[in-house]
Amino acid sequence: MAIDLLMPKLGLTMTEGVLLEWKVRPGDAVARGQLLYVIETDKIATEVEAEADGVLEAQLVAEGETVPVGAVVGRLAGSDEASGAKPRPNAATEDKIQVSQPRAIPASPVSRRGDAQRIVATPLARRMARAHSLDLAAVTGSGPRGRIKAIDVERTLGEPRQAPEKAGAGNAIRAKPSATQAAMARRLAEVKQGVPHFYLSTEIEVSALIALRETLNADATAPRLTLNHFVLAAAGRALRDHPNINRVWSEGELLAFAESDVSMAVETERGLLVPVIRDAGRRALDAVAADARDLVERARSGRLSAADMTGGAIAVSNAGMHDVTWVTSIINPGQSAILGVGSVRSLFRPDAQGKPELRREMGVVLSADHRVHTGVEGLAFLSSLKAYLETPMRLLRQI
Amino acid sequence: MADTRYIRAINKALADAMDADASVVLMGEDIADAGGSFKATRGLLDRFGPARVRDTPISEGAIVGAAVGAALGGLKPVVEIMFMDFVTLAMDALVNQAAKSRFMFGGQASVPMVVRLPHGGGLNAGPQHSQCLEAWFAHIPGLKVLCPATVEDAYSLLRAAIDDPDPVVFVENKALYAMAGDLPEEPARASIGKARIARQGSDVTLVTYGATLFNCLKAADALASDGISAEVVDLRSLQPWDKETVLGSVARTHRAVVAHEAVRSFGVGAEIAAVIGEEGFDDLDAPVGRVGAPFMPVPFARSLESRFIPDAAAIQAAVVASLA
Question: What pLDDT does residue A272 have?
Fold first, then answer.
């Protein structure tokens, strides 16, 4: 019995994934549990193992291709005891597809990478491209598996042709992005263009926070706390106080989360990863800090799992270690808000009498999805966060 | 005559053919005294007498064998096999004798015989009384295969089949017998091998025949409300079939789905899809879809049979898939 190998769904909001790499070739025998292929979502790369012994019959999706969740990426000719594996549905795609709305299957860039890569295009699309001397490598396919259809050729013919000469480019070098870069570029562009962002910014006075942190860190036996640990705990608590913020827009519906999860942006060699601290609003500061340290460590060593990256409505992106005042971020795909945190600055502000007062301030910017949040809700969340950080002893309270 | 039932159109075609040509004779089980299991020959015994309307023993091999001999001898027999399923017993006469005679006698002999075969489900008649086996005969050089969907075609194509000098397998869907439709006073003569565009459309071509025509039209209506314009081609004749009309339609719509009640595997749809793939390749903007019954015997139970026979929803889904 042949088993279909599918693009798995790794999170509630995952709609598609990139097939990053095949680990076996057609004809290779594989054992149950053996690594078959690596996929990547907007959040993580993860490995898919064989659910049964068998022989890889076909790779139906090329490396670097983006396909929707549930798409068949390959086929394993299994042995009879291949229980637990998903049997191949015998009818065609049937009820999976909705007619009335634009197709969910995204365009995948079909590019020529050496002679080995075949361009998938319908016969009509090929004939039209021939007639117009159009190189199909320049066309993005919108059909299943990125198949180029007539309409894609028409669309490309309608666009102004790209100037073949890189006029004035000097010594510039043109390079194809990696599959990861391409996926990230596309996802970010989708979010920035498709999600109506609004921004709220404020300064937070952090003298008390810095003092508290110094006091706690004076205990050399306790793990060190960073400012970001306080911000993550405060964001969790503010989220708990304002559960409306803890929602995301998902396929036309509002999805409300029960746990006060807070994601944190971690810069790694593979790019930005955004693992989740579970229920940061209901756990002790030390527990939040311990999770954060563990996630950063695993993100940098490439040991995050898909589950580590799934869920949460809000992320914290802290650039405070650099010299930056305002960090105005793009919302992480699948979430509805992100808090950009800048560096701490010393400055004078007039006090009640108009005399200069030395303050230490940290700029924060909340980027929020206006489909989900109102300005009033965003402000309420932001002032709650500000209150926790300006009166940081509250973060130590038993919950 | 508006509101003529399909079975009446068959009856009238037989009667008119017998009036027009004294060499037309009818043979079959219970067709004379009883007027046929489905009453296709009702009243014909009284009108044309027992020499031309003959009840036969329950032996399909004997009936068709006798009919082949009668046809070689100059008569124009029209045989009724009660259910298409029973034709298995007549295969030698049909496939090895009737189909081969013109070729083997160097064109000096012909078998102007019609074998009427009621096919199809919907009557809860089970695995041995519901099959659609027309693909078997379309595979045999020397046989023509017709399958009319409409009342007018039932009349006109049966007249054409009886007039044809070679053996014709005439397939009638039992579920259509009670269907009423328009039968003109002077029905136009049909020519074998011509399809009819039953509905015009621009986005996809639905190729079909027999009772599935009506499910295709239903699917086309539903698709229209989604803004998808489906053209429906009623083949009417499966062997020969009207390649020009089908390929011409696909050249306009660039997508095709072939639908029939017969089991999908190795069915008529496979041949048509293959020819579209070969000769219409450069016109295609999507793989050719096929809709047919699942690969299993026809179930008895009403609940199962209604799921077995491809309905409008299945056709609609295949069209949507071809537009992906």
Answer: 83
For residue A13, the domain's CATH number is: 2.40.50.100
Find, among A158, A55, A182, the residue nearest to A110 by Cα. A182
Does the beta-carbon distance from A92 to B318 stay under 8 Å?
yes
Question: Do residue A227 and residue A313 come from a single domain?
Answer: yes
| Together in a domain, A255 and A328 | yes
B4-181 CATH fold: Rossmann fold (3.40.50)
Answer whether residue B199 shows pLDDT above 50.
Answer: yes
Averaged pLDDT of chain A: 83
Chain A environment of B273 (Cβ under 8 Å): none
SS3 A206: coil
The answer to the question of residue A306 being in a domain is yes
Give which of A312, A221, A317 is closest to A262, Cα–Cα.
Answer: A312
Residue with token string 């009319």: B148
Which residue among B285, B289, B294 sits closest to A149, beta carbon to beta carbon?
B285
Q: Do A150 and B324 touch (CB under 8 A)?
A: no
Are residues A320 and A208 both part of a single domain? yes
Q: What pLDDT band is residue A146 in, cutting at 50, 70 and 90?
A: confident
What pLDDT does A102 receive?
34
Whether residue A128 is found in the same domain as residue A202: no
Catalytic one of B60, B80, B152, B231: B60
- Is the ipTM above a cut-off of 0.90? no
Instruction: Return d(Cα B131, Cα B92) in angstroms, integer.
Output: 19
Fold: same for B4-181 and B196-322: yes
CA distance B59 to B228: 50
> Which CATH number applies to B196-322: 3.30.930.10, 3.40.50.620, 3.40.50.920, 3.40.190.10?
3.40.50.920
Both tokens of residue A253? 């519906």
CB contact under 8 A, B321 and A92: yes
**How is residue B59 annotated by DSSP?**
-
Which pLDDT value is given to residue A278?
94
Query: Taking CB atoms and an 8 Å limit, are B317 and A144 in contact across chains?
Result: no
Query: Which strand (E) or helix (H) includes residue B36?
Result: none
User: Do A268 and A389 have their domain in common?
Assistant: yes
Q: What is the 3-state secondary structure (H, E, C) of B92-124?
A: HHHHHHHCCHHHHCCCCCCCCCEEEEEECCCCC
Cβ–Cβ under 8 Å, residues A262 and A277: yes
Is residue B129 part of the annotated active site? The answer reads: yes
In a shared domain, residues A61 and A121: no
What is the pTM (predicted TM-score) of this model?
A: 0.55
Q: What's the CATH number where A286 sits?
A: 3.30.559.10
Query: What residues 71-110 of chain A have any CB closer than 8 A to a CB of chain B?
Result: 90, 92-95, 97, 99-100, 103, 105
Which residues in A lie closer than 8 A to residue B264 (C-beta atoms)?
Answer: none
Alpha helices in B190-292 (DSSP H): 212-225, 243-253, 268-279
Question: Mind telling me how many Å the CA of A128 is from chain B's nearest CA?
Answer: 9
Please list, in sequence order, all residues whose beta carbon lies within 8 angstroms of the beta carbon of residue B218, skipping any fewer than 6 positions away. Answer: B312
Q: What domain count does chain A have?
A: 3
For residues B213 and A252, which has the higher predicted lDDT (pLDDT)? B213
